Amino acid sequence: MKNRRINYFYQLMGSHLSILLVSFLILSLLFVRFVEEFAYQDKAEELESYGQQILRELEGPQPAANLEQYVSILQAQNINFIVFDQQSRILYPISEAFPPVELTPEEWNLIERGETLVVNRDVRRFENTVTFVALPYVEGSQLAGGVLLASPISGTSEMIYELNRTLLTAMLAALAIALLLSYLLSKLHVSRLQRMRKATAMVSEGNYNVELPESGYDEFGDLARDFNGMTAKLQQSNEEIDRLENRRRQFMADVSHEMRTPLTTIAGVIEGLRSNMIEEDQKEKGMNLVSEETKRLMRLVNENLDYEKIRSNQVTLLKERVETRELLEIIKEQMEFQAAEKGNSIEIDAPEGQQVYVDMDRIIQVLTNIVKNSIQFTENGEIRLASFSEPEYTVIEVEDTGAGIDVEEIGLIWRRFFKSDVSRGSGQFGLGLSIVKQLVELHGGDIRVESEKGKGTKFVIRLPDAK
Predict the structure, then answer these.
(1) Whole-model pTM over 0.85
(2) 274 near 316, Cβ under 8 Å?
C-alpha cells in the first residue's frame, strides 16, 4: 500500500493544534480543580469563622439569648447550625428541621482530639449536598459536644459554573487567536521551504546562479546561508571545470600543432631515405635533422610531464643552502657554448659568500630556462647574471640586451606554448617559462619581468631565506 503524502503545512497545523488543545485541556482541568478547591475551602473557612463566634457566645452568661441573633443572620446566608452533645443529640436550636447528627467514628475521633472537622461535599447525611464543619465544644476541660454549621453547595456550584463558562469563553478566544497565528507561521515556514525547494530544483538543473534571502534569527536563515555558500562554491567549481576544459582543448590543440611540424619533418626525411630521394651528400644532414626533431619531441613530452607534476603537487623540493655565485657559475658553464654561437657573452655579478636556500636541481632548471630564453632573443649582446640580498629574501636577476618583449605580451609569456615572437622560428616551445613560474612559486618566491622592446629583458626572482 502506497504511503499517503501529508503536506508539511498540515503537519505544522496539526502539531500546533494538538499542542494547543492538550495544553488548554491540562490548564483547564488544573484551573477548575484549583477553583473548586479554593471555593470549597473559602466556604469552609467562612463556616469555621462563624463556628468560632458561636463557641464564644456559648461560653457567655446567656448563651441561648445570644445565639438567637446568629440564627437569623446565618439563615439569611443560607447557613444552618446546631449545637450537639456527645450523644449526637441536638441541644440548640430545638427544631426538627435539622436532621440528626451522624458522624463516623473517625470524624468523632477528630473532634475529640480538639480539631475541626471539614467536609467539602457531603451528599449522604443531608437532604441536599452541603459543605459542613464541626468544631469541638468544651465546657471546663471536658468535651461537651460540638457546633456544626452546614451550607448547601448550590451557591458555590453556581460560582464555579460561572468561572468555568468564563474560562471556556477565554479558551475558545485564545484558541481562535492561536490557530490564526499558527496558520500564519505555518504559511511563512512552508513558503520558505518552497522557496528553498525551487532553488534546489534550479541547482539540480545546472543553474548555480541562485541566491536565497538570508536571516540570522533561526535555522532557516542558517540553512539559506549554507545553501548560498554551496551554490557559490558550485558556481566556482563549474567555472573552474569550464576553464580546465578550455585549457585541455587548447592544450590538445597546442600539442597537436607543436608535434605536427617535427613529426612531418621526421616522416618526410625517413620517406626520402627509404625511397632514395635524398642524395648521398644530404643524408647526413637529413639524419641530423631527424635527431634534432626527435630531441624536440622528447623535450616537449618531458616539459609537459614536468608541468603536470608541478601543478598536481607531485614535486617535492629538497632545499639546501647553496652559494649563489657557485650556482650562477654552473649556469654560465652550461650555457656559455650556446651563447657564444649567437655572439653573446655571459657575465656574473654576485658577492662572495652569499647563500640562497633552494632545491639545487630545480633552481638550475629555472635559471637554465630563463637563460635559454635570453640567448634565443639576443644576438651579439650580453647576458648578465646577478644576485643581491634584501631583508628575508635573496634576489637573482637575469638580464639581456636582446629584442625585448612588447608591454602587452609580458603578462602572456607564462602561458604554455606562448612564443614572444613566433616569426623568429626559434624552435623553442612555450612551456619553459610556465614551469619556471610554478617552480619559483613552489619555493615560496615570486618572479617578475621588466622589458622594453628593442632594449632587452630582465627577469627578477625573489627567493625567501631559510627561517
Answers:
(1) no
(2) no
